[in-house]
Amino acid sequence: IGPMRYENITNYLKAHYNELGIFEETIAVIILALPEMVMVPGNGTGGIALEDQLVIIDGGYHHPISYDYSYYSYLTIHEVGHEIGLFHPHDYVTFDENDNTTVYGYTDWLFDFISTPMTYAHYDTSFSTFDREAIARSHTFKYINKTLHLLYNANQTLLSKNYNELSPLLENKLNYVLFNKTLSIESFESEDFLVAHYYAKLCYLAAESYFIFVDGLGLNLPPTWNEVPSDQTIKLGEEFYYDVNASDIFGIKEYTINDTDNFNIDENGVIENMIVLDVGEYWVEIYAFDFFNNNCSAIIKIVVLDTIAPTWDIIPSDQTIELGEEFSYDVDASDISGIKEYTINDTDNFNINENGVIENVIMLDVGDYWVEIHAYNFDDKNCSAIIRITVVDTTIPIWSEIPLDQIFNIGEDFSYDVNASDLSNIDYYWIDDTVNFNIDSNTGLITNNTELEVDMYDLVIRAYDPYGNYCEETISIIVKPKNVPGFDLLIIMGCIFISIIVLGLYKKKKFL
Fold this sequence. Notes:
Blueprint: H1 9-15, E1 29-30, E2 46-50, E3 54-58, H2 71-83, H3 132-160, H4 168-189, H5 193-216, E4 224-225, E5 232-235, E6 241-243, E7 246-247, E8 252-257, E9 263-265, E10 270-273, E11 280-290, E12 295-305, E13 311-312, E14 319-322, E15 328-330, E16 333-334, E17 339-344, E18 350-352, E19 357-360, E20 367-377, E21 382-392, E22 398-399, E23 406-409, E24 415-417, E25 420-421, E26 428-431, E27 437-439, E28 445-448, E29 455-464, E30 470-480, H6 487-511
Parallel strand pairs: 1-3, 5-12, 14-21, 23-30
Antiparallel strand pairs: 2-3, 4-7, 6-10, 8-11, 9-10, 11-12, 13-16, 15-19, 17-20, 18-19, 20-21, 22-25, 24-28, 26-29, 27-28, 29-30
């Protein structure tokens, strides 16, 4: 560097340090910076080693030096000693982990340097120990010193953020630091300084990484979902299983879910149902926590669908009833979610209630009724069946009054009215003797067709409904002569006599 008159050479070189093109892997560069044409007295010379690469010697320092000879050689060797990693004898780093804040102190482990230029109380320019092990010994303490500072600062950072629990990642990093620190100190105490230096450097680099994680990579940043949880759909009766996963630089401490009545989430983020889920929608909020209680969350909808239709317990079948009877038929369906309702398409004639009982709502006429029945679950899935309900009339008509035997005088006109009733109404009346008698098929009025002679006529009378059912009665019609005394009594006696004979034959037959 060219002549400089009375300028602060040290400050100049510091300001232009980067311009010198010095890199970490280069060999140490020594720059002797002296004012132009100046005599440097022993007690006016100072030096500094910048960043372990640059040595500055100028007259701007005023450190007293004990001896006024060999100052130039002493100063040069002293600063070069710093270049290669040697400490002052009075520099040290404690091994006491409870004294993490101490930077400088006094120890006796470097007092074999007392007779070297590395001490401020030098009296010799020679080194008692100036070899690899001496450098390794100094570097070991430098790395241990920096390591303890990093650990202390990292711990203070954690405490300031109220973090009282380490994540597995941080714990592993810290354990690696402490592991190498222990190996370094053990090697140092056994005076294996090269090995101590090796582990001390590993210890320092690991501590630096640990502190960067604590201080520089955002402990307050929450975890992030590997894949954002999405809505899920399952069928009724299925087991629910859904795996959510989050990531955090310090690891995931736990997963939680707000609906613990219906769901559970384990430490791996697997969500399962706790009970059989009913049909419906379940809104749940899921959290993933790191070891500093930062979290990410997601709200999802779990939908349970009933995609399976109900089934009939017994498939509905065709039904037949008699005209005039009340219709009642019970159909039953089953579904895992239950049956919400039953319906029938013919609501003019039938009704079906919530239990599946079908009944007629009006009097049903004879005929066929085709109806479609549905059973719905709570997801509106349904099963259906079409059946035929047949109304038949197999019941015979009933006489309003049972027809009786009739007596009239010869020469008179015969007239006798019979009446029957039926739910289907009377279609027509009928008699077997149409030669002598006539019956009005609509009204049941019986009259004679011809002039009847004195005699007894047996007449079979029927009343038919529209479906061929009929009621029948046989009567005797007696034509008597006019003015014959006792004729009526004779007829009556004859009828009684005939009845006695018939009754006797019946009893005889019964006891044979």
